[in-house]
Amino acid sequence: MLVLTRKPEEKIIIGKKNQIVITILKIKDGCVSIGIEADADTPIYREELLKNKKHSDSTAIDEIETSVQKFQIDVSSLQDICSEE
After folding, report:
1. Domain hosting residue 25, numbered range
2. Sheet arrangement for strand 20-28
3. H helices then E strands: how many in the chain?
């Protein structure tokens, strides 16, 4: 791990073509505010969100499966109605 000391308004540049630029915005009460500049296709995550991602993914899959089942029931009902006419 590379450890750097930075002051407010100083930057850290990652990548050969300035792909990611991290700017220290302020330091107050033991908290550091940073700004991150990166290409739109570069995902940036907070660690705690990644730790919860597995739980979120399974919840999202359950919701999608429920929606698909409901859609299948709705389509089936619609087909029944159309065949009656």
Report:
1. 1-40
2. 11-14, 20-28, 31-38
3. 1, 3
64/37 Cα distance (integer angstroms)? 33
Residues 6+ apart with CB under 8 A from 9: 23, 24, 25
Q: What whole-number distance in Å separates Cα of residue 82 and Cα of residue 1?
A: 65
pLDDT the model gives residue 30: 86
pTM score of the predicted model = 0.56
Q: Are 23 and 34 in contact (CB under 8 A)?
A: yes
- Number of domains into which the chain is organized: 2
Residue for token pair 């990644």 = 50
